């Protein structure tokens, strides 16, 4: 693992539970220590947060939320006090212009002749004054870290220097330590399709139920809980009563579900379980999103479909199940990708490379 020999600070709006292992692993790579500053989300966001970090120092500030949707703004009270007390050699911040505290933190670091790195999803094409304003915002950062290659290309197309852009593929899982599960080259029984995630409307599990009802002869296992569970169970009773709702499962409880599945499907936006599914040698079908899936899901290991497109979902499932030998090869490629290319260890290495580039 690459090492940073200084003192690192990192700001986030909130600390989701799934991101804690990454921050602890990054802190382990910082010989001078790492401190993380976050606030809390609005209750309506339904983000599961944590304050439990084993290695990184953690400072909880107070997020002041203003407006909503496209007008949303956030001010993080306590950010500057934390920054001056921690006095880092390098600061990494979310590259989001809606966070009102960012300019003050960047200016303070630059007064100390210390660098600030922006971390973001990218910048979809815009024009005119908005483009100039967005470019001005990201130019305050001394380097940029993007979640995906698409995001990196968007920053470059906006006008940010390519040699200062780093791609740290978004990951929530370590490289698998277990071997690739062995699956038969042919199916003796009906194929097993697995969904794992929170049962929300945007996950479009309703489309998955309809697709399985259309195709038939599929064992569909839905692992998760959430506000849409009751309505989905009612829909399943009407159109696909064989669907299995297993409730929420976590950690080691998921192992058997992944090992027994033949195909993993996330038909809607969001979803963190895809990398874990891939670590168990599963080919995947996912809905296209913000670009973070582009590097993870390729034609060699899965299918990307437009969200809210039932026909595309149904076609992808039929295509996947039409050639079981090919499906197994795709699963092997899924395992290789998360073993060798995209995992939190690789993500940490790229963060450290970005920080060390500014010495």
Number of strands: 15
Gross morphology: globular
Query: What strand line-up does the widest sheet have?
Result: 3-2-1-6-7-8-9
Fourth-level CATH superfamily of the largest domain: Glycogen Phosphorylase B
Task: Describe what this molecule looks like in 3D.
The protein is of the alpha/beta class. The protein folds into two domains: 8-173 and 343-356, Glycogen Phosphorylase B (Rossmann fold, 3-Layer(aba) Sandwich); 192-340, 3-Layer(aba) Sandwich (Rossmann fold), CATH 3.40.50.2000. 35% of the residues lie in helices and 19% in strands. It contains twelve helices and 15 strands. It has helices at residues 20-28, 79-86, 102-111, 128-138, 149-158, 205-215, 229-239, 255-260, 274-279, 310-321, 324-340, 344-356; strands at residues 8-14, 34-39, 57-60, 62-66, 73-77, 90-94, 116-120, 143-146, 165-167, 192-196, 219-223, 244-247, 263-266, 284-287, 302-305. The strands form three sheets. The chain has a seven-stranded parallel sheet with strand order 3-2-1-6-7-8-9, sandwiched between helices. Strands 12-11-10-13-14-15 form a six-stranded parallel sheet. β8 (143-146), α5 and β9 (165-167) form a beta-alpha-beta unit. α6 (205-215) packs parallel to α7 (229-239). The two termini are 18 Å apart. The model has no long low-confidence stretch (mean pLDDT 95).
Give the SSE layout:
Elements: E1 8-14, H1 20-28, E2 34-39, E3 57-60, E4 62-66, E5 73-77, H2 79-86, E6 90-94, H3 102-111, E7 116-120, H4 128-138, E8 143-146, H5 149-158, E9 165-167, E10 192-196, H6 205-215, E11 219-223, H7 229-239, E12 244-247, H8 255-260, E13 263-266, H9 274-279, E14 284-287, E15 302-305, H10 310-321, H11 324-340, H12 344-356
